[in-house]
Specification:
22% strand; alpha/beta; Rossmann fold; nucleotide binding; lipid metabolism; single chain; 620 residues; seven-stranded mixed beta sheet; GMP Synthetase, Chain A, domain 3; membrane; 30 strands; transmembrane helix; long-chain fatty acid transmembrane transporter activity; eight-stranded mixed beta sheet; 20 helices
Length: 620
């Protein structure tokens, strides 16, 4: 028996070794797929439960299980699960009495990152009211647009944003909107203070009957897209979607014992759904930050024993730009969850701050398809497996970046992109992977639906993103449709050009885009850049970088020096205004440079050079 056991054990080791050689990610694939199956079964169970089991119910169960466990650390104060629950009861009762809220009423939250954001949302959930999460950076026209498209009749703001509310108050009053301020008092007519009412309200639990009609398909939230190409769109987030997003932490291996650091805005899906909702799903402790601070980041992590961090856009680069210290690897962070990190920054981050498992994601607030890079493969935004493609069908299709539309065959169907070829990602719209759309914007909703993709009558969600799959089934983000421009018959990915520009010693950040030139087809490359502190624009070094690493058609012919690059709340670069302003010196007050191929350097852009380009005396 012992001999047989030894032989079988040896065979098992050999088989495992063979599988690892054949597929280096076999074990990681199995672990991830098992986690996904388990989470999928949980969601299926929640769908069938009556009454419906929401994330709020998960929070209330956590309150019963560990009422004294810290839920939120914020600016030196700790709030337990029990405290947050009672505070949300008080807010709910105050809103019941003052705003006369009833199940189904939408309430807009215009709040900064603070604990009141969380318990106010919980209060609304207890009343069966969807919440519209307004970006606290928007003002005037955008604020009114975001507020009106979700159909809200009530807005709750924090004192810091009172001036922004006052700007649009006449319109809000005309529309009969109730405006509440989380303050003890307010002297402005038309704005009612709410904090004093909350303080006087009872903290007794509320009846479940108040949300009796809420189900998994009900709207839980309105979360706004960043609006890089116009006014923000209100993505409808159902309770099913809330559950699915909250599972991201679990899929990445986060447990109830972990401590999660939220430094992203709660008005966005990353901070609210993956961060806060994910923490509730896990029953864990969070550290909430008013806003991201690179200088305070690691000190906070050490102070609160943070084990899981969150990032988006350029936050890891901001951390890598901080002055080096001896204790950089002295922390307990083991997992980083987020998206949008460049390959070079990813490597530098690991080298400086230690063996942190970076779990890069690909997803969209309103989308029906997403990926997680659950391996340590640097640069990939995800990994494909048969289980994922079975439950959430998707495909990459060929895309014409000049016409900005899918390439179709003689039968009118889309053409699949080959392995290794960049294509447009589309996710099949099914009951299991729905696309609900945008509130109050049927036109934009319809634009995201793509018909007749692989067969007549099918329906897919158009992500608007260009991706690439390699032979190992890793997924790589290439660009967003519209960010890619075509010049000299070639497609240019702006992210790749930006990466090369930042290799120049003087360049801190680069925002690359294509601009039209009179008499030429397509768009030629241009970049708005910021410079490192104390540096002047080095024309020669920048020229050498773009010539050495970029083909002629991809080299940015015009460079615009800006004091700061305009960003959205989630660190995405705004390009629309820059594209409109083009390269004419008369339209731009910033320093402007032109790539002079004869002088082999960048030279200051002048009206004479501009006229020569327009008249085609200078060949581009």
């Amino acid at each position: 028996m012992y001999v047989w056991f030894t032989v079988l054990a040896g065979l098992a080791v050999l088989c495992l070794s063979f599988l690892r050689t054949l597929s280096p990610y076999f074990v990681q694939d199995c672990v991830y797929m098992l986690r996904s199956l388990k989470l999928g079964l949980r969601l299926l169970k929640y769908k069938k439960l009556k009454p419906f089991y929401s994330l709020l119910d998960c929070f209330l169960d956590a309150v019963k299980t560990h009422p004294r466990k810290v839920f939120i650390h914020f600016e030196g104060r700790a709030y337990s699960y029990g405290e947050v629950d009672k505070q949300s009861n008080k807010v709910a009762r105050a809103l019941q009495a003052e705003a006369r809220l009833k199940e189904g009423d939408t309430v807009a939250l215009f709040l900064a990152n603070e604990p009141s954001y969380i318990w106010t949302w919980l209060a609304l959930a207890k009343l069966g009211c969807p919440a519209a999460l307004l970006n606290f950076n928007i003002r005037s026209k955008s604020l009114l647009h975001c507020f009106s498209c979700c159909g809200a009749k009530v807005i709750i703001a924090c004192p810091e944003l009172q001036e922004a509310v006052e700007e649009v108050l006449p319109t809000l009053r005309e529309q009969g909107i109730s405006v509440y301020l989380l303050s003890e008092s307010c002297s402005v007519q038309g704005i009612d203070a709410l904090s004093d009412k909350i303080a006087e309200a009872s903290d007794e639990p509320l009846s479940r009957d108040l949300r009796a009609n809420v189900n998994i398909r009900s709207t839980a939230l309105y979360i706004y897209t960043s609006g890089t190409t116009g006014l923000p769109k209100a993505a409808i987030v159902t309770h099913e979607r809330v559950w699915a997003a909250s599972f991201v932490q679990a899929a990445c291996g986060v447990t109830a014992k972990d401590i999660f650091y939220i430094n992203l805005p709660l008005y966005h899906s990353a901070g609210f759904l993956i961060g806060m909702a994910g923490a509730i799903e896990r029953g864990m402790t969070t550290v909430l930050k008013r806003k991201f601070s690179a200088s305070q980041f690691w000190d906070d992590c050490r102070k609160y024993d943070v084990t899981v961090m969150q990032y988006i856009g350029e936050t890891l680069r901001y951390l890598c730009n901080t002055p080096k210290k001896d204790n950089e690897k002295n922390h307990k962070v083991r997992i980083a969850i987020g998206n949008g990190v460049r390959t070079d920054i990813w490597s530098e981050f690991l080298n400086r701050f230690g063996d942190i498992k970076v779990r890069e994601l690909y997803a969209a607030t309103e989308g029906n398809i997403g990926f997680i890079n659950y391996t340590s493969k640097i640069g990939a935004v995800g990994r494909s497996n048969f289980l994922h493609s079975f439950f959430f069908p998707y495909t990459l299709i060929k895309f014409d970046t000049e016409k900005e539309e899918p390439v179709r065959n003689s039968e009118g169907l889309c053409i699949k992109a080959e392995i290794g070829e960049t294509g447009l990602l589309v996710g099949k719209i099914t009951k299991r992977s729905p696309f609900v759309g945008y509130a109050g914007n049927k036109q934009q909703t319809d634009r995201k639906r793509l018909c007749d993709v692989l067969k007549k009558g099918d329906l897919y969600f158009n992500t608007g993103d260009l991706l690439r799959f390699d032979h190992e089934k890793f997924v790589y983000f290439q660009d967003r449709v519209g960010d890619t421009f075509r010049w000299k018959g070639e497609n240019v990915a702006t992210s790749e050009v930006a990466d090369i520009l930042t290799m120049a010693h003087c360049v801190l950040e680069a925002n690359v885009y294509g601009v039209k030139v009179e008499g030429h087809e397509g768009r030629i490359g241009m970049a708005a850049v910021t410079l490192k502190e104390g540096e002047d624009f080095d024309c020669l070094d920048t020229y050498k970088q773009v010539v050495n690493y970029l083909p002629a058609y991809a080299r940015p012919r015009f460079i615009r020096i800006q004091p700061v690059l305009e960003m959205t709340g989630t660190f995405k670069m705004k390009k629309v205004k820059l594209v409109e302003e083009g390269f004419h010196p008369s339209n731009i007050s910033d320093p402007l440079y032109y790539l002079d191929t004869e002088k082999k350097t960048y030279v200051p852009m002048t009206e004479d050079i501009c006229r020569a380009i327009v008249s085609r005396e200078i060949k581009l």
